[in-house]
Design the sequence.
């Protein structure tokens, strides 16, 4: 714990030294922001953000931030992409978790402010546009059948690249990782995706991993649909500590006990897996063709 100087002379001396008693230098105040470390209680989280971040998340304390939290007057901007025919649970699961942390300002963005219709007909209103989006501390992309169109949508891909350049965490659920990959944001990273499309990450130079949540430096990706809640709780623990993440989990009564065994290819019967693959074969063929083209545009294949 850092002791406070007892008099003005000590204060001046501390300022001139420009360092804490721990030996860690205080960041010089730049015109844009002062970096502040949010320390995670308990074991060191494996989710480290960008290189140089030691514990938790290092964020920008802006002079005129778009929003402030009640807890510590520091607001992290979570920019969540909407698009036609996305899978709403990919987004609404994480949204439910993130909304329980007052430090997080959530932004649902798309090209326009018109309602965005998910693959099953649910209409969601954007809160902002791509052009008007704040800089994300956490950039998030959900998956869904509409991902195919985004994979070759240069306006969206350029937006993601710009945002990722200064985001602390670049994240996705389900086939949202294929959109990140098409933007060149997963090349050289371990990542996951819905099991039907997991191998397509390899086209973009990513290392496909069959796990529910995969953390590789500042990239955090989750597997299919329902894994979005696990992803958000995992990231919340990295940002705010396990105790607060556990509190959110309990408040949501998140204690899944599915009525059937077989929610993954590893636990389902071979016959059921084969049946689902066959039912999706035509769509998956289209998805693979687009993935190959997008990877070729990145000059990866």
Sequence:
């Amino acid at each position: 714990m850092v002791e406070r100087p007892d008099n003005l002379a000590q204060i001046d001396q501390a300022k001139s030294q420009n360092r804490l008693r721990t030996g860690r230098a205080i960041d010089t105040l730049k015109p844009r922001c002062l970096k502040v470390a949010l320390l995670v209680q308990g074991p060191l989280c494996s989710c480290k953000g960008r290189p140089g971040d030691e514990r938790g998340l290092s964020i920008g304390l802006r002079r005129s931030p778009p929003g402030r939290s009640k807890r510590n007057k520091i607001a992290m901007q979570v920019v969540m992409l909407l698009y036609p025919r996305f899978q709403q649970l990919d987004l609404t699961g994480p949204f439910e978790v993130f909304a329980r942390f007052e430090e997080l300002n959530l932004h649902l963005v798309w090209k326009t402010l018109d309602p965005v219709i998910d693959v099953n007909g649910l209409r969601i209103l954007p809160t902002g546009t791509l052009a008007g989006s704040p800089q994300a501390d956490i950039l998030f992309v959900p998956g869904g059948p509409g991902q195919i169109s985004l994979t070759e949508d240069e306006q969206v891909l350029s937006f993601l690249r710009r945002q990722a350049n200064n985001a602390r965490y670049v994240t996705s659920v389900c086939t949202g990782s294929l959109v990140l990959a098409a933007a060149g944001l997963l090349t050289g990273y371990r990542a996951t995706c819905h099991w039907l499309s997991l191998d397509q990450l390899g086209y973009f130079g990513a290392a496909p991993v069959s796990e529910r949540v995969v953390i590789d430096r500042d990239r955090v990706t989750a597997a299919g649909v329902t894994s979005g809640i696990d992803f958000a709780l995992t990231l919340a623990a990295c940002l705010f500590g396990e105790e607060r993440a556990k509190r959110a989990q309990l408040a949501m009564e998140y204690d899944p006990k599915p009525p059937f065994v077989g929610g993954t290819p590893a636990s389902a019967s071979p016959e059921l897996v084969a049946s689902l693959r066959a039912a999706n074969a035509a769509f998956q063929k289209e998805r693979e063709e687009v993935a190959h083209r997008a990877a070729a545009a990145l000059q990866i294949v």
User: Anything to note?
Assistant: The chain has one domain: 27-254+264-297.
